[in-house]
Design goal:
Layout: E1 6-12, E2 29-30, E3 41-50, E4 58-64, E5 66-71, E6 74-79, E7 88-94, E8 102-111, E9 125-128, E10 132-135, E11 150-154, E12 187-188, E13 190-191, H1 198-206, E14 218-220, E15 229-232, E16 235-240, E17 254-256, E18 261-282, E19 287-293, E20 317-322, E21 329-331, E22 337-347, E23 353-362, E24 372-375, H2 378-393, H3 411-425, H4 429-440, H5 461-477, H6 481-485, H7 488-499, H8 540-560, H9 563-584, E25 585-586, E26 591-592, H10 603-611, H11 620-627, H12 643-653, H13 664-671, H14 695-703, E27 706-708, E28 715-718, E29 727-732, E30 739-745, E31 749-756, E32 761-766, E33 769-773, E34 776-783
Parallel strand pairs: 7-14, 11-20, 28-32
Antiparallel strand pairs: 1-2, 1-4, 2-13, 3-8, 3-9, 4-7, 5-6, 5-8, 9-12, 10-11, 15-23, 16-18, 17-23, 18-21, 18-22, 18-23, 19-20, 19-22, 24-29, 25-26, 27-28, 29-30, 30-31, 31-34, 32-33
Helix pairs in contact: 3-4, 3-5, 5-8, 7-8, 8-9, 8-10, 10-11, 10-12
Length: 786
């Protein structure tokens, strides 16, 4: 994409809150002669003199592509949050706490990857930052990687005075000459609207659009600021050529002798997403390479037990810092990193180097965990904690499927992440952002992109169907019918696209694009993760997902949209389900086959066949028992991800009591020392994958049994299934207050204690018995076996 390397700031000290409409009097500015299509780092600044500090000084800031904003050397924030060209975000900051009477330096670092004193125009200064560049990925770094590149900061050419008043600064257009190279001096910023005349600027102002050659449409970021909280680096687990007096901290610096190469490996014990900060002194020309990894691996790439780094190598994304010899130099990359283990390789020249400290500032979406779950099985508490940690680290300005490998928002992952957010926090802002983004991503043909926002287009048609499911989930958990109604046009275009790909008999043709469903080990043709299709199509798995989406869309149309269309969707879904059963049911094996040829069988087809009632209800428990047993060794197995849908099938078939016993894959991950859930069983690429955190949703909704009883969560159904657990206590946030439950198994019965928020209707379901629930605390004795 084109890199503008531009900044826009609109300042206003008159509003305690954002005005409903912003009139952009600021302009996009850029550094003179900045290349349009090359990666680079650029600085912008303005010195503003204030007679006194205002109570508030709000600024609205955006950039192409990213910025970090400083006032008087204090980091204020970063942005903009991810968006697309028609929804380019701007951030709002109050600068007042960082301002002082007299001269103030307001500065920003920009890179690719009614007071009007600060409005961006040609009174700003700009210059390139030659001390900051990017590092190519190491040769031994394997795997699909979509995140920020490694960065190189050369302290010998870095401008250490850029964010504060340079003693050589003088008023007027006389620039800092602290650098002997004029190419590095501050220059007058230029308008990024290159070649635009005054008439163009006038018309842009009338349309409330800032001067912008790309005509990107600015919209406020509706999300809260990401966290920026200091965390300790961890424990030194390995060192070479370095004497370790104790844990590295500001009180216990480490010194590396001249002309030496030393390494230091640190284990945080848990994964983090953070901005790493390295503080050093002395050691001019010393090079410090910092490598971040989820876990060290052996020569074959196996990670083994994550708590044991012995005989393993740290491989991963790397930053490089070069010392200028100054004291207490602080190095920090522009983008956050993900790591549990970090390795510092220090190569000194003629001077000793002191490592004063290494720490991080953890960043993630500021979710507040309000749900809780405890039980008689202590392992479930560990699963709950690790799952929540996974969900946290995979939530930033967007949801991401993995914070280390792919910082991208995929529909399939995000549907699960949003559900965890609803039941754990009651915060739906990040989910709304995701639903909006996927709706924005729809093509002219009607389907959504598989991940968004993303400069590189990718299409996974089944994810468009899951987007409809995600919207249906929102409709059930959040009371905002207009938000859902506004998205129905998009669900119609998706289903129309699928209708065009149906055979006369109703089954789907051979489907285009990447029809990913799950990382089933043997699904490799034509692409990894795609279920079998015959030459003319006929995939039961893809068709079953279509059935499910038709019914979910019908529910929403019936309540909020076109009732006739709802009838049509239900009719089409019922006809397709009947066709799938007729052509794909294998009477001998009593299983649904993956295709009409009946040569391939999977858990997936039978899970979806159960959820959609394509398999008759009286056969549900028999089929689920069959696919979960060892009697079908040729069955394609569901991975961590698709076991989310297995849990839905257990619930639909009324055998939730099997759920806790099916968590052995998560228990095995605990035994391997993972602090977040992996993407797939060993060997796995990613040690942190949000789709594997769905037990946090299942424990609350299946085991504790708390779930919406009607759209908008206007009523609640509590239908617990304890399995062999002796007791369960749980709580789920609701807009009217927490819903709390406690179930204790006694001799011959179960004591249920339920606390309901005011004005929330509900019912308790147990072994066919339905008990009305009222506001407040109530105790109910439940008979076992009745």
């Amino acid at each position: 994409m084109r890199t503008l390397l531009a900044l826009i700031i609109l300042a206003s000290s008159l509003f305690a809150e954002q005005p409903p409409t912003i009139t952009w009097k600021a302009h996009w500015i850029t550094c003179p002669n900045a290349p349009a299509r090359e990666a680079g780092v650029y600085r912008f600044r303005k010195i503003v003199n204030l007679a006194s500090v205002p109570k508030e000084f709000n600024v609205h800031v955006s950039a192409d592509n990213r910025f970090v904003l400083y006032v008087n050397g204090q980091r204020i924030g970063e942005g903009p949050a991810r968006g697309d060209l028609f929804h380019w975000r701007y951030e709002t900051f109050d600068l007042a706490p960082a301002l002082k009477p007299g001269d103030n330096v307001v500065s920003a670092i920009v890179w690719t990857p009614e007071s009007e004193a600060l409005n961006t125009d040609d009174t700003w200064e700009a210059k390139p930052e030659p001390g900051h560049s990017f590092v190519e990925y190491p040769e031994n770094f394997e795997g699909y990687f979509v995140a920020g590149p490694g960065e190189r900061i050369d302290g010998r050419t870095w401008d250490w005075n850029a964010n504060s008043l340079d003693p050589n600064w003088r008023r007027g257009w006389q620039w800092s000459v602290s650098s002997p190279d004029p190419a590095r001096w501050w220059q007058r910023a230029v308008y990024a609207a290159d070649g635009r005349d005054a008439e163009y600027r006038s018309r842009a102002a009338e349309r409330n659009i800032p001067d912008n050659p790309n005509a990107w449409f600015l919209t406020p970021n509706g999300l809260p600021k990401m966290t920026y909280e200091g965390v300790l680096y961890g424990w030194i687990v390995r060192s070479e050529n370095l004497v370790i007096p104790g844990i590295t901290s500001r009180a216990n610096p480490l010194e590396v002798s001249p002309n030496k190469t030393a390494t230091l490996t640190v284990d945080r014990k848990t994964l983090t997403t953070a901005y790493p900060e390295l503080t050093i002194s002395g050691g001019r020309d010393a090079v410090i390479r910092v490598t971040y990894t989820e876990a060290p691996s052996d020569d074959k790439g196996n990670k083994g037990n994550r708590n044991d780094p012995a005989d393993k190598t740290v491989r991963g994304i790397t930053d490089e810092f070069i010392s200028d010899g100054g004291r207490n130099r602080v190095f920090m990359p522009l983008w956050w990193r993900t790591w549990r283990y970090v390795q510092l390789q220090i190569t000194t020249k003629d001077q000793p180097l002191t490592i004063n400290s290494f720490r991080g500032y953890e960043t993630k979406y500021p979710f507040d965990l309000k749900a809780r779950f405890t039980s008689s099985d202590p392992t479930l508490a560990k699963i709950w904690y690790v799952g929540w940690r996974t969900a946290q680290l995979c939530a930033h300005e967007t949801y991401v499927d993995t914070p280390y490998w792919e910082q991208l928002q995929y529909v399939g992952d995000t549907r699960i992440q949003a559900l965890i957010s609803y039941v754990s926090t009651g915060d739906d802002r990040l989910a709304r952002q995701a639903i909006d983004a996927f709706d924005y991503s729809r093509t002219s043909e009607g389907i959504t992109q598989s991940r968004y926002p993303s400069a590189l287009q990718q299409y996974i048609p089944p994810f468009s169907l899951l987007y409809i499911g995600m919207l249906h989930d929102f409709w059930m958990y959040r009371d905002d019918p207009q938000f859902v109604r506004d998205k129905l046009m998009g669900t119609r275009t998706i289903l129309d696209w699928y209708r065009k790909h149906q055979h006369v008999d109703g089954l789907l043709q051979y489907m285009p694009w990447w029809n990913f469903v799950d990382w089933a080990p043997n699904w490799k043709q034509p692409y990894f993760g795609t279920p079998p299709q015959e030459k003319d199509g006929g995939s039961s798995i893809l068709a079953l997902q279509y059935v499910s989406a038709l019914r979910e869309a019908a529910d929403m149309e019936q309540a909020l949209g076109d009732k006739q269309l709802a009838l049509d969707y239900r009719k089409r879904a019922d006809q397709l389900a009947a066709t799938i059963y007729k052509l794909c049911w294998d009477a001998k094996r009593k299983l649904l086959a993956d295709t009409t040829a009946k040569t391939s069988f999977s858990q997936h087809a039978n899970i979806l066949g159960t959820i959609t009632d394509t398999i008759p209800r009286e056969q549900h428990q028999l089929v689920l028992g069959s696919i979960l047993s060892n009697q079908n060794p040729d069955l394609h197995q569901a991975s961590y991800y698709f076991r989310f849908y297995l849990a839905r099938a257990l619930d639909h078939a009324g055998v939730d009591d099997l759920y806790v016993d099916l968590l052995d894959p998560w228990r095995k991950m605990l035994d391997l020392g993972l602090s977040t859930w992996a993407e797939t069983p060993e060997p796995t690429r990613s040690d942190s994958h949000a789709w594997s955190a769905h037990p946090n949703y299942d424990l609350l909704t299946l085991v504790a049994g708390i779930r919406p009883g009607s759209p908008g969560f206007k009523s609640v159904v509590i239908a617990p299934d304890l399995g062999q657990l002796k007791n369960v206590e749980a709580a789920m946030p609701h807009t009217q207050g927490d819903i709390a439950v406690s179930f204790t198994r006694r001799e011959g019965d179960v004591l249920a204690v339920i606390t309901m928020p005011p004005e929330l209707a509900g019912e308790l379901r147990w072994n066919g018995r339905v008990i009305p629930l009222r506001a407040g605390r109530q105790e109910v004795t439940l008979a076992i076996g009745n």
